[in-house]
Amino acid sequence: MTYDLVICGGGPAGSSAAWRAASLGARVLVLDKAKFPRDKPCGDGLTPRAVASIGALGLENELKAFNRVEKLRVNGANRTLTFDWPGSDSFPDFGYVVARTDLDEMLLRHAADAGAEVREETPAWKPIVENGVVRGVTTKQGEEFRGSVVIAADGASSPIARSTGMVRDAKRPIGVAVRSHFEAKRPAADDAVIESYLELRDGEDLLPGYGWIFPMGNGRINVGVGILSTYKGWRDVNTAHLMDAFMRALPKSWELPDISSLRETGQLKGWRLPMGFCVREPWRPGVMAAGDAAGVVNPFNGEGISEAVESGVLAATTALKALGADGERGPSDFSSYTRDLDAIWGPYYRLGRTFVRLIGNPRIMRALTVVGMRVPPVMEFAFKLLANLYHEQGGSFGDGLVRAMLLAAKAIPIG
Length: 415
Ligand SMILES: Cc1cc2nc3c(=O)[nH]c(=O)nc-3n(C[C@H](O)[C@H](O)[C@H](O)COP(=O)(O)OP(=O)(O)OC[C@H]3O[C@@H](n4cnc5c(N)ncnc54)[C@H](O)[C@@H]3O)c2cc1C
What we know:
Helices cover about 35% and strands about 25% of the residues. It is α+β, with helices and mostly antiparallel strands. The protein has a domain at about 1-40 and about 100-170 and about 275-350: FAD/NAD(P)-binding domain (3-Layer(bba) Sandwich), CATH 3.50.50. The strands form 4 sheets. Strands 1, 2, 8, 9, 10, 11, 19 and 20 form an 8-stranded mixed beta sheet that branches. Strands 6-5-13-16-17-12-18 form a 7-stranded mixed beta sheet. It has a 3-stranded antiparallel beta sheet with strand order 3-7-4. Helix 9 (about 360-375) packs across helix 10 (about 375-385). Flavin-adenine dinucleotide binds near residues 32 and 153.
């Protein structure tokens, strides 16, 4: 059987693409190498943007079963600031923390309920390429899955995206992060607060990145650290040591375990964050990449779930439009996908890439941390910008400033 869409990867990007296409009546196959529920190294944090994008798939009510977060506490330069999530015209003023075992299974089952066929424990191995156009994928055992369009939603290591030529531009930044889950003796009220710590150090150097504590409810927390490749010595930074130092600075009363026990039991998990459109172009004839495979993580804050969902839906929409067209370009040309991604995130990601290059310099990182922590309105503005949550019309001075910066960034050519 030939499918309309063969989707490699059933994470947030693949499941959202599958849900969208199957809901519109397309014949969709999702292949994932894992058996679900499966874990994925992640902070498990859903920002208001993610709540909106998952809500748009029809799962708004299902999210209510998870831990809702309404505030952000930022720690740095010997100070602590607490903010409400900035609401906007398009996004709610709250988020959730959802273990990826639960979130990804929910998204994949939602796609199956919409009519997508799902094959777990089936790793795609190689693309089938005919006359320069990708027409499906094979497994290592030689099983063929043919589709008019293939979507590579196979995550940061992206075997199918890479073997079709969609590789990361090494000049663009990436993030690396590790995380673990704990039971912590913390005040119950803190279950509604996500926390970030701006001071991760390599010797004297203040690193571009942050440590986080994301509450999962009932005292369970996701703790992690992430840094950016814009710091010159980033390859030599041991993220497990960074996590160790971070955890040692947390209150003893939380009774967190020693990090060595986590490493022994494999509970400290890390991975890469391909960000800021680091994969150009995110399509080749017959195939599009979505989510981490397309490098669409937000460079400002490392958020990748809502970007995976949004790019997955966009890839599916683009594929179906191309399948419906009988123009000479046919379903193999997806240049509109690049343009549409750029319309959503282009100027913002161009600003983001500049920002992460700047904070790769420890002196600039220190100066911005001190100013932001001493002048709360500056940090409030930074939070709007970093979380990509601002009013598209009206709002505060900060909202207007974000809009002005994005307008200026539009003048920079696509790239
Ligand atoms: C430590 C860490 C913390 C993070 N914290 C957050 C956070 O708090 N909030 C947030 O929004 N983002 C966070 N991110 C980013 C976020 O996890 C990713 O951006 C997001 O998972 C991308 O979704 P995806 O569907 O593109 O890829 P994935 O979620 O990685 O899914 C890819 C799927 O493809 C499958 N696959 C891989 N290869 C094959 C193959 N050959 N054949 C078939 N299937 C295959 C995998 O099994 C997997 O199910 C974090 C990332 C890291 C590393």
